[in-house]
Amino acid sequence: MHTAILSSLAVLFLNTVSGCEQFARFDMPSLFKQGDVMIGGIFPLFNKEIRSIYTFEREPPGVKSFRWTQVMIFAIEEINKESTLLPNITLGYRILNSCASPTNTLRAALTLASGPEEIKSTSTCPPAISALIAESGSSQSLAVAGTLGPFQVPIVSYFSTCACLSDRAKYPTFFRTIPSDYFQAKALAALVKRFGWQWIGAIQSDNDYGRNGILAFTEEVKKLGVCIAFVGTILRTHTMDKILDVVEMIKQSTVKVILAFIPEGDFYPLMKEVVKQNITGIQWIASEAWITAPRPSTPEIYKAFGGALGFVVQKMAIPNLKPFLTGISPHATNEMCTGNETLLYSQDMFFNVTQLRVSYNVYKAVYAIAHALHQLVFCQPAHQPAEKPLRNQFGDNVLFDENGDPPASYDIINWQLRDGQVQHVSLGHFASAANGDYKLSVREEEIVWRTGKMVPSSVCSNVCPVGTRKAQIKGKSTCCFDCIPCADGTIANSTDCTPCPREYWSSERKDACIPKTVEFLTYHEPMGIAITAVSLLGASLSLAIMIVFVKYRETPVIKASNTELSCFLLFSLFLCFLCPLTFIGRPTVWTCMLRHTAFGVTFALCISCVLGKTIVVVTAFKATCPGNKISGKFGPAQQRIIVCSCTFIQIVICILWLKLDPPFPDMVFRYSNRKIVLECNTGSEAAFYSVLGYIGILAIICLVLAFLARKLPNNFNEAKFITFSMLIFCAVWITFIPAYVSSPGKFTVAVETFAILSSAFGLLICIFAPKCYIILVKPEKNTKKHIMNCNMQW
């Protein structure tokens, strides 16, 4: 146990064997008691140096620091009375005042190291202190540790928390009984995280304690995304102008939470100025150096600092200390006292020994040195009763880690006003583990906040509303930002706008991705109903005309128009009228393949029949000329061959299309951001336009042949009607191509079905309407004489 202290003591004892010469000494008063082993103590009994006569009776010492000295004396005397810890060894002490100044602390340390003046000895090198208990301030401890460390003097601090003192390379003999600010920074950062504060200010003392404390805290909170708005620096020796600059910094800032990592003596002037200027509404976070200090704990200071939160080391009680304190005789230090005074019944806080924090650290420091001495002298650890500080507080006699620091354990203190007095109410606990984890427990419902019962909010910019993202403001902290609406198709997360998946779109509030509207031509919408009705009408007319042709098949008009080809044509038109029905409804693999191939084959059959009829008409009327035998070469067999062969070519094209790159259902996103258009992708564009091109070639051939027969007799010139039908057909499909390419979404399907129905009705009406008119309306013209009556000019 305490190997480092033990080795330091061993080296120190060896150094005292050699002779040395003292050139001079500082004239510093002390509390002194001779012993076999001397322990030094340095305490800030005064906050300023008394330059006249430097004695205790000139100005009453600080109550806290004076109690620290008495606790050290009490612990030494308690150890001397025991027979187990250091038997046959008497501890002595010499205690000096530092005035809370690094310079005076160094002067006191050198005085203690040089040997006590009180001993009148002829030795050339009187025994120096074996260990030193010092100091309360980190800057003072840095001065002492840096000076006495090379001489292997063990130094145990009771209130210096700067993390810089944990550097074993620089300060190998420095130890402390109070946790390092490294752990306090973690505790403060955990508190900030617990209450969700993102934008805070900081005030530091212009010394090692403040600067290193804020640095450690800043490193911790940056990991949590917390921003430090400003860092004000003050010291008790600063001018009022510098203090007012910090006050102005607080007033100009938007922060609602400020951490003050600063000793009470340096902070108090600023506290008074904050109260004077009535700066309220700030939630203060305190370091352990001032959260329980008595001087600022007044109703006046509470006006601005009420509800302050901070951490302090856990409070403990020291048995039998109160009788020792009440037994102090004022006559020993003040000649004005008679010696009959008693402090036994005093109610002053000085005598409250049930809630000791720093005083208990002094107590532990004395016992740590005593245990190290025991092991050095007796070569074995001392037996430690359960009620003593080392085992009672930490168990298994473990006090220091490898950096000379004790385990971290803090109470959470809240300033509350009760019965007109400021109370330091403990509302939680923080403890760190060896693996770096920590546990923070807070009774939030009992905290009195500066703003009342509600947890104060401290942010530079409010949380962005739904549907917006953070946009960093140039030149400002990352916690300060503007909120910019997310673009369509994106939703907001904590820092950015995230695009929705392809099949989704952002909601109106930009807070969720919702499925896009799926669009395709349906039977229940007006356009679908209209196409279905027209398609069924055309199919019905085709069947009706076919029935008429079958019924009147023996009449001259029907015979003259080639009954077989006419029925084939009507059947193909019937199929053409039904094709648009495959374009309605949700596209599937089968409907996509069917709609294009069925359209291509049925129209090829239709135009093939028209082509056959055109050839029949031309050859029939040419046969009326003398010596013309062409009609005999173009009978029914040839007509069937033309129709089948022309249709077969289209069937081959469609089979190749379906085999190599067939049409398939596809989701199209380019038409609209908010909807998905379901349509049939043609697969192979070349195959699709080949089907259309082949139908176009057949139609052009029909148009040319019919045009050549335009001068046939007028009584029944079927070629003229075929010409009209082909003109309509070609006009429709020529117009279809640019309309098909430019139409968006389901209107593409509408354009294609319109072209199919228009061209089919053009053929049906132009070719069959005149015949039906004669058959049904003008039956007197349905005679062979009328049909064969040629113009005299023919």
TrEMBL record:
This protein's record includes keyword Membrane: yes
Span of the signal peptide: 1-19
Example GO molecular function: G protein-coupled receptor activity
Transmembrane regions: 527-550, 562-585, 597-621, 641-660, 687-709, 721-741, 753-776
InterPro entries named in the record: ANF_lig-bd_rcpt, GPCR_3, GPCR_3_9-Cys_dom, GPCR_3_9-Cys_sf, GPCR_3_C, GPCR_3_Ca_sens_rcpt-rel, GPCR_3_CS, GPCR_3_vmron_rcpt_2
UniProt keywords, alphabetically: Cell membrane, G-protein coupled receptor, Glycoprotein, Membrane, Receptor, Signal, Transducer, Transmembrane, Transmembrane helix
CDD domains: 7tmC_V2R_pheromone
G-protein coupled receptors family 3 profile domain span: 527-791
Bilayer topology: Multi-pass membrane protein
Annotated localization: Cell membrane
Cellular component terms per the entry's GO annotation: plasma membrane
PROSITE patterns: G_PROTEIN_RECEP_F3_3, G_PROTEIN_RECEP_F3_4
Family: Belongs to the G-protein coupled receptor 3 family.
Protein's UniProt name: Olfactory receptor C family, n1
Species per Swiss-Prot/TrEMBL record: Scophthalmus maximus
